[in-house]
Amino acid sequence: MAIYSATVTSPVNIAVIKYWGKRNPSLILPTNSSLSVTLSQDHLSTRTTIACSADFESDRLWLNGVEEDISASKRLVNSIGTARALRASEEAKNPELAPLSQYKIHVCSENNFPTAAGLASSASGYAALVSALGQLFELPQSTAELSRVARVGSGSACRSMFGGFVAWRMGEKEDGEDSMAEQVAERAHWPDLQALILVVSDKKKAVSSTAGMQTTVETSALFAERVRSVVPARMQAMEKAIKERDFAEFAKITMQDSNQFHAVCLDTYPPIAYMNDTSHAVTRIIHAYNAVKGYTAAAYTFDAGPNAVIYAPKSEMRDLVQLFSYLFPRDEDVLPEVFYTNPFGLV
Ligand code: 2P0
After folding, report:
1. Carries keyword Lyase (predicted)?
2. How far apart, in Å, are the Cα atoms of 240 and each of 32, 167, 235, 334?
3. Domains plus CATH for the chain?
4. Which range among 58-72, 275-289, 313-327 shows the weakest confidence by mean pLDDT?
5. Which value, in Å, is the radius of gyration of the alpha carbons in the chain?
6. For residue 312, is pLDDT > 90?
């Protein structure tokens, strides 16, 4: 019996304008647009193979070698179901197509980075799942259209469908039809921009993004102001900075938006504190580094955890790696606070 299969690798993305808050939690429709940089898939990515066959008896999933229950995850069921429905409509138009939409699938998904390191894996994970389903089912939809399917798996995953600089337009429609990702600029547009990841802690975060952002929407007074008057202007300014390769502006907005996202987390009730003392030390180091250099040489950003991502021009990376290695020396015996530094060329 025939087995059909497809394999795809999708990278992680790191937001410079943060997504935090849903206006519709089940469709994963955000309260604000966001913008990110997709990292190189050589370093942080998910590789997913999906096979389907008339012989398979049930949908099955192996995540980093361990079998998980697909039916226990509404998001997995939703994204796989949406891709199947798209395939089914193609089969209805063309009876010669094999009825893959009716076959059970087997999914094998692996991250090429330590899952324990606490780096975002849902973005690359759902992007790889949906891209692999798109290939397996030979779906005619564009990448932007498929990003809507990735979105119902995990919001930030829609941005990992593209390389380079990617905006997730929040959209206006209630059904989410216009809430999807769009490439703002290709990676090749700004090859000089690099990323350095400082893994400050490998502990699992205490408050998940999904739960945390909903509490923020319900309780934070600052949040409403951020969504109403701050983010729309920042989206425009950030797109301009990227188009003009204006690192000083890119860096300022990136740091300000990271700071505001964490301020809004602290304004949540009960408060959510993702950054720790080491994270705050990293922000001080970057501002001191920029002051010593006399120009904006580097920017930090933090997601829903204490790990730092530093964006900087290539010419700064050597100094930055040496500086962080000196300030947070790596110790193999005792887990140091910053135990992993590595310059990542972007896609
Ligand atoms: C972002 N984060 O823009 C922001 C910044 C975390 C901090 O996207 O509920 O894992 O799956 O849609 O995508 C984390 O949120 O949440 C996130 P769901 P997701 O990258």
Report:
1. yes
2. 18, 13, 9, 44
3. 3-189 (3.30.230.10), 193-345 (3.30.70.890)
4. 313-327
5. 20
6. yes
| Cβ within 8 Å of residue 335, ≥6 positions away | 202
DSSP string computed for 276-328 = -HHHHHHHHHHHHHHHHHTS---EEEE-SSS-EEEEEEHHHHHHHHHHHHHHS
Provide the strand spans (E) within 75-179.
104-111, 165-169
DSSP 337: S
For this complex, say whether ipTM is above 0.90.
Answer: yes
Q: What pLDDT score does 234 carry?
A: 98
Ligand 1 first shell, C-beta below 6 A: 15, 18-20, 28, 34, 122, 154-156, 209-210, 303-304
d(CA 127, CA 157): 5
181 alpha carbon – ligand 1 mean position (Å)? 14
Question: Ligand 1, closest atom to CA 126?
Answer: 11
